Amino acid sequence: MSISYEKLMTSIEETALIGGWWYDIASDNLEWTSALRAIYEVEQDYEPRIESAITFYNEAYAEQIKDALQLTVTTGKAYKIKASITTAKGNVKWVFASGMANYEGNRLTATYGVFQDITADVIRAENLIKTNDITQITLDSLVEGVVVINAAGKITKFNQASENIFKYHRRDIIGKPIEILMPEPHRNHHQAYLANYHETKVANIVGIGREVIGLKSDGTSFPMHISINSIDGPSGQGFVGTIRDLTEEKQIKTQLDRLSHYDNLTGLPNRVSLINYLQKADSTKVITLIAINLHDFKKINLAYDFAEGDVVLKALAQRLTDFTGLHHFAAKDIADRFWLVIDHSYIKDLENCIIELMSFLKQAINGDKNRRHHISICMGVASSQNNDMLSNLITRAETALFSAKQKGINEICYFENLLAEQIISKYQIETDLRVALGEQALECWLQPKVNQDFKTIAAEVLVRWKGKDGQYIPPDEFIHIAEKTGLIMPLGAYVANKTAQMLAQINKLKPDFTLAMNVSPIQFLQANFAPKLVACFDSHQANLANLTIEITETLLIGDVKIVTDTINELGRYGIRISIDDFGTGHSNLKRIIDMPIFELKIDKQFVNNCLIDKKSEHLLSAIVSMSKVMDYSIVAEGVESLEIAKHCINLGVDILQGYYFGKAEPYRSFVKKHVENVHAVELVSQ
Ligand code: C2E
Ligand code: CA
Ligand code: CA
């Protein structure tokens, strides 16, 4: 709530001796205005509860109020009860307590009410009794204003409540025409209405209540509820009007509306208002929603206090308001989340507009005591062009914001691009890979594996895809897509075929040379994986005993039976099983021990870091000592320097692989470099 608004409300309340309350049914939260606290004579930090509020009522009224309130909560029926209370300071006061229901759509969400201190009026009525004017006493004891007019339309009775409402003293108004209480244009037409009624006896207003505008002695008009009944008087037919001033009720309703639609701290519209705004937006126009988040806002609260955090949030809200002007719509959500709806009719270029917004918002903010806060911001942007998208624009902007936060600070992410980029590139890779497989655009490169004497005794087969532009696409970019789309099957078959071809050729030159081939879990778990592989190698007369299959630890947490059966079957042909990336997965050592595993390949992250990071070094040496006991062959992959190579050998690693000894390269050049008898190169075409 803005400061000026709050001031206005408080002064209205204080002048009229009126307080307001609001009870939120869902949260069981009761709020009192400060004027209400003053009536009850409780401290301003007093926290009201429904049960304790009832105890202020004097005995005769407590039950009545309780029942009425219960009825409002359950049925929405409004009440207005005159009652007496004993304040916190022990003073007895007379009040009018009212309760009404607040609906959101069809749902009753809260009750609220007005509480008026009428002690002075009651005392006055008591005094009047002493003067014996019973009619006047009766009229004055009514909460509603009562105005009686005679057949000529002149005022004959004007009760105490009417005096309060219209700000006239009885003695000044008795005998005056009723039109005096009506603003134009009603005033002009009233005589004609009255004449018509006397003639036809037909009137819209008699017998029913309605809301009209009244006029006070000071010329101000106000909303009031009036119900009129005709009476037969000594000089013909007159009318009794019962009047209720709706000013405060309306103001409090507006005020409470405001509370539920605006952010308390910054005065910006809240999330409810944002949703309303988006629901009412013109669905034929483009709308862009930006979710804005402060980075590390919590730090400000923690480093200083919440008041300092509030200063920052208010400053940011002010900047957003300045940026918004009359054209866009800014809102504040919970915590440090802000929203901005951009109306495209007022901007030329969305991207520019957002970049401007970013640089405007992220300027340092002056806090209390000359502190300066250098803030960082992330934004998620989502646009819509039709109704369907409008409904989940908030979710889209939030998704984009999430991506922006993942990227870092002062980042902007666009939902459309995000989604489109992901879908397009995945789809593109899938279709291109399909074509590449058909055109044999995949190549199998070899990376050397050396023994403790640094002699190349084996190689790992690593697939490469030559893109249309001649650039090689690394396997990390397409293997997972091949796995998801099933393309891993033809890809795996292609690699197996090439591996068999290469192994057969190399073994003619070096009979003990082995090749290691990566096999994805999807391939491995396929029925007939082993027989097919065996058939493929047989067709090239390749020695299966010189083949190593690299599988990952994840495979070992799956269905044990199938995995064990396949490993055993492969073992019968002399095929060796290597556990790749060892140390990164959820190793189940027990399972590894139970299976005929030949080799553990320690993941490159531990090898790379073994000289600089104690944890990696310990892990490396622990794995090596364990493997020695278990008789596994140990491979260290990712060896990038001589120091690391020596360190690994000192620990007892058997085989080394890494850039220090050579990157993966095409078959021809690999054989030239790493295998003797160079003429063998011609035998395999790539
Ligand atoms: P991987 O099996 O762990 O293969 C080792 C990766 O580490 C290779 O990347 C290799 O080039 C890289 N590397 C080797 N030495 C070093 C080094 O000293 N330092 C660093 N930083 N990296 C080194 P590449 O070729 O990009 O392969 C990535 C992954 O793609 C492989 O990881 C493997 O999981 C998968 N992959 C490759 N070829 C195939 C295949 O034919 N079939 C299947 N299913 N997956 C494959
Ligand atoms: Ca591997
Ligand atoms: Ca690896």
Kindly describe this structure.
By secondary structure, this protein is an alpha+beta fold. Helices cover 44% and strands 24% of the residues. The protein contains 27 helices and 26 strands. The protein has an eight-stranded mixed beta barrel, surrounded by five helices. A five-stranded antiparallel β-sheet has the order 2-1-5-4-3, sandwiched between helices. It has a five-stranded antiparallel β-sheet with strand order 7-6-10-9-8. Strand 12 (329-332) and strand 13 form a beta hairpin. Helix 5 (119-131) packs antiparallel against helix 6 (134-140), helix 12 packs antiparallel against helix 13 and helix 19 crosses helix 21. The model is unreliable at 678-686 (pLDDT under 50). One calcium ion binds at residues 580-581, 601, 603, 637.
Overall mean pLDDT: 87
Main sheet summary: 8 strands, mixed, barrel
- The largest sheet has its strands arranged as 18-19-21-22-23-24-25-26
Q: How many H/I helices?
A: 27
Unreliable parts:
678-686
Q: Ligands in the structure?
A: ligand C2E, calcium ion
First and last CA, distance = 74 Å
The number of E-state strands comes to 26
Which descriptor suits the 3D outline?
elongated
Helix content: 40-55%
Rounded Rg = 43 Å
